[in-house]
């Protein structure tokens, strides 16, 4: 930019800032060359805040039975709340809701002979994040696994053994949730 002075009819001198055409076009051209990805907003995006965590086991109930579905329905919300504590804001009206829809559980079978190894159990589901008006913001599939090593007691107390295996799967699923959600 250049500064120039101009005279008025009465002989007074007035300072005028003049911009050359080339300077104006080059200053506008700077904006055209900056890729949009390089422009950062002034404020960083806030991390998601959950006001509620829910678990949906209706698909699991059809495939694995009532007892397994009840165990997941009881255990998973506590596990998710524990790992997502930094992202919880129950009083925030505009907070999101996390729905964990559990679809399948596979309790792997261990080897036939004692000491031949354990089993790998797995649980598959979807984490659904919805906004304050129920609009789905994200659906993220999640598969978690847990190892199981059979013991002699498990044969006589098989229901308790299955319950422990389901609890281990719920803990593993919850443990992976923050990473899968990108938080």
Name the descriptors:
2 domains, alpha+beta, single chain, two-stranded antiparallel ribbon, 183 residues, 37% helix, Double Stranded RNA Binding Domain
What does this structure look like?
It is a single chain. The protein contains five helices and six strands. It is of the alpha+beta class and 183 residues long. The protein has two domains: 2-38, no CATH class; 50-181, 2-Layer Sandwich (Double Stranded RNA Binding Domain), CATH 3.30.160. The strands form two sheets. It has a four-stranded mixed sheet with strand order 3-4-5-6. The longest helix is centred in the C-terminal third of the chain and has 24 residues, at 158-181. The two termini are 48 Å apart.
Summarize, please:
This protein has helices at 21-33, 58-64, 66-83, 152-156, 158-181, and strands at residues 2-7, 13-18, 50-56, 96-106, 119-130, 136-148. With 183 residues, it is α+β, with helices and mostly antiparallel strands.
* Nearest-integer average pLDDT: 79
Shape: elongated
Biggest beta sheet summary: 4 strands, mixed
Strand adjacency order, main sheet: 3-4-5-6
Q: List SSEs in N-to-C order.
A: EEHEHHEEEHH
| Class of secondary structure makeup | alpha+beta
The tally of domains stands at 2
Number-wise, the strands total 6
């Amino acid at each position: 930019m250049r500064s120039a002075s101009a005279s008025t009819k009465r002989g007074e001198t007035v300072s005028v800032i003049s911009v050359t055409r080339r300077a104006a076009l080059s200053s506008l051209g700077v904006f055209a060359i900056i890729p949009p990805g390089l422009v950062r907003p002034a404020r960083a995006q806030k991390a998601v805040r959950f006001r509620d965590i829910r678990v949906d086991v209706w698909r699991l109930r059809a495939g694995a039975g009532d007892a397994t579905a009840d165990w997941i329905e009881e255990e998973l919300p506590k596990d998710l709340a524990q790992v997502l504590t930094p992202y919880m804001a129950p009083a925030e009206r505009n907070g999101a809701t996390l729905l964990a829809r559990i679809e399948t559980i596979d309790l792997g079978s261990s080897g036939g002979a004692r000491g031949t190894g354990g089993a790998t159990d797995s649980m598959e589901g979807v984490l659904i994040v919805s906004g304050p008006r129920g609009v789905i913001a994200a659906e993220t599939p999640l598969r978690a696994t847990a190892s199981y090593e059979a013991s002699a007691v498990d044969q006589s107390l098989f229901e308790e053994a299955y319950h422990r295996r389901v609890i281990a799967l719920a803990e593993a699923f919850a443990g992976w949730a923050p990473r899968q959600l990108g938080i």
